[in-house]
Prior knowledge:
The chain is an alpha/beta fold and about 375 residues long. The chain folds into 2 domains: about 30-115 and about 220-275 and about 300-365, Periplasmic binding protein-like II (D-Maltodextrin-Binding Protein, domain 2, 3-Layer(aba) Sandwich), CATH 3.40.190.10; about 120-220, D-Maltodextrin-Binding Protein, domain 2. It is about 45% helix and about 15% strand. It has 15 helices and 10 strands. The protein has helices at about 5-25, 50-55, 60-65, 75-85, 95-105, 150-160, 180-185, 195-205, 230-235, 235-255, 255-265, 280-300, 315-325, 345-350, 355-365; strands at about 35-40, 65-75, 90-95, 110-115, 120-125, 140-145, 170-175, 190-195, 210, 225-230. The chain has a 5-stranded mixed β-sheet, with helices on both faces. A 5-stranded mixed β-sheet has the order 7-6-8-5-9, sandwiched between helices. Helix 6 links the parallel strand 6 and strand 7 (about 170-175). Helix 8 (about 195-205) packs antiparallel against helix 12 (about 280-300), helix 10 (about 235-255) packs across helix 11 and helix 10 (about 235-255) packs across helix 15. The protein is globular. The protein starts with 6 loop residues before the first helix and ends with a helix.
Amino acid sequence: MKKIISMGVRTALYAVIASGAALLAAVPGMAQQPVKIGVGGSNFLNLTYYYLTLPGPLGYWKEEGFDVDVFPVSGSTEAAQQLAVNNLDFAEMNASVIIQSNTEHDLPIRAVITNGTVGWGLAVKKGGAIKSAADLKDRTIGIVSLSSGGIPLLRSFIASAGLDPDTDVTLIATGVGAPALTALQSGRVDALMYWSSALVGFINAEPEIDIIRDPEWLKMPDFTFSTSKRVMDENPKMVEGIARGVAKAMVFAAANPDCVRQIQWKFYPDTKPTGVDEEEAIRNELALLDAVLEEQKFAAEINPDNMVAAASVSALGSVQDFLFEAGVITDKVDPKQLVVADNSFWQKVNDFDKAEIEAQAKACELP
């Protein structure tokens, strides 16, 4: 005869089993599931990737039962390709590449968490002749590469002023870091089109710089933590647990940016700036963090229910429309195909004690 267990008893049993599993995962020496995360477009993981560099040292992923390896890959496109052939479990990439993967290459890449909105902009000389898109006529603009994901944004910005992006401006590749800034300072280019942390780096080195951009960009998802449909279908609890670690790191960073800097320098000493005194290095690092945390705040504003860690179907759909109108993609998919699941998934991801994480950040007891 089948024994009937009441719903209340069954729920209590599930809770005991779940808590027991969490305790076992945290026991030193217990085997943990390996997970691989690739970060597109970075040669090294500086502190602006705090949502991926903090969960390891702070033990967030270990608590979920995972042994996570985070490493850079050459770009967002490469990250998408590695996800598609199962060489990665997760990847950090531009939202535009998630969309292109689905619409142009039939690669089922899914957004898990939008970490920030579009922070790209044009760096120009302070007090110079360029103050708006209209002033870009007959100008030369530097960009990291001529295949950069920022080009559709730039083209739309130029076109918004009634200019022809094919004939009214000249684009040249200026690479990353000091060579790009030197190109602006020397007059080789009139403006630099770069992402937010690069722009902050330019300003740190050369305060006489202004930034111009389309304010609508701040409402568009950009760098996004992603996975494949296969991973989500086969192991949704793993996706949830890894995403929750990312979410905790996002809350931690917003509560105490300088603690992020301290953890970064302790656990990733090769990323500590060199050639400047410590006070200046700290000031510059915090300026970088402020820029990325601002984008994180804008991302939360477009997320379902303003959740810290989520992805918006409608916002990704708007980016898809933008890319289609710009001629970057030739087809569109149902925007629901671009994300991992419905709102109930993100509610689970965000189901943790945020006040406890904030207190941990403010105490800043380094692991």
